[in-house]
Amino acid sequence: MSIFRPGYRCRVTYVLLLDGLRRVDATEPVLRADDLGVLRGESVFETIRVAGGKPAFLDAHLRRMRTSAQRIDLALPDGWDALARAACEGVDEGVLRLVCTKGPPPTGFAVVTDIPAETLAAREHGVRVMTLTLGITASQRAAAPWLLGGVKSTSYAGNMATIRHAKAEGCDDAIWVSSDGQLLEAPTATVAVVREGTLLTPPPSVGILAGTTLEAVLALDLVPVTVRPVTAEELHQADEVMLLSSVRGVAPVSWLDGRELGIGPVTRRLRDAFEASLH
Ligand SMILES: Cc1ncc(COP(=O)(O)O)c(C=O)c1O
Questions:
Q1: SS3 for 1?
Q2: What pLDDT was estimated at residue 16?
Q3: Nearest atom (ligand 1) to Cα of 46
Q4: Which residue's alpha carbon is at the smallest distance from atom 2 of ligand 1?
Q5: 154 in Cβ contact with 37 (< 8 Å)
Q6: Which atom of ligand 1 is nearest to the CA of 187?
Q7: CB distance 47 to ligand 1 below 6 Å
Q8: pLDDT of residue 2
Q9: Are residues 142 and 180 in the same domain?
Q10: In this predicted structure, what is the pLDDT of residue 18?
């Protein structure tokens, strides 16, 4: 059975073994049933865009994967760069997932799939988004490292439940706000807003994941940027809102909590420049 929803095609699976790489059939089981990644969600992962046959921003993803592994005390094996590059061979555009379970022993694997049509549509036409509370203050997640804010572990059931809730309410996605009214992140994306021509986005110190897409967009140096805590009020008054993530890229938020935003000029510019930078 595919681990992905219907419509996702698993094209390539590689397993990272201590003695090297092995390409396996996508239907072949690669994990033990007693792996802590399976039993407790103690795994780390990265979702990476494959563009022009290469894993985009691989170094940044591998750096973050190492940090995530340290945070959950997972002994990450070596060999990820070679695994990622091998898995992308012959794949022009797609999604590369790198996963490492805790085991013991840890099992590393790579899976390549197509980019879902829904993702491409979101990038082009935008997404309808509602804010939802994460139920804690912005400082609590940072002050309680065991809540694993900023860690890309496979304990994403809450993230997926958030998106399901938003979809049940007629939206495409959600943005989390803290119980003290701060903008946090989306369940699978960084959030940035535009106010008076400046891009505002919250810092990782509010307990959010440090996004590689945001990092790449900021490196393009196209607009003035301020990284600082952003309130939910500022989010609601923003001229433009966007979600940034590896595969969707820069996705315009075209509707937020009942307000039509359309696709603004800054979002369009950043989205198009980011796409151009990948090819
Ligand atoms: C919670 C969360 N925040 C932000 C991001 C964006 O990170 P990136 O731009 O590296 O894909 C993701 C990506 O999946 C995420 O899961």
A1: coil
A2: 66
A3: 14
A4: 188
A5: yes
A6: 1
A7: yes
A8: 41
A9: yes
A10: 47
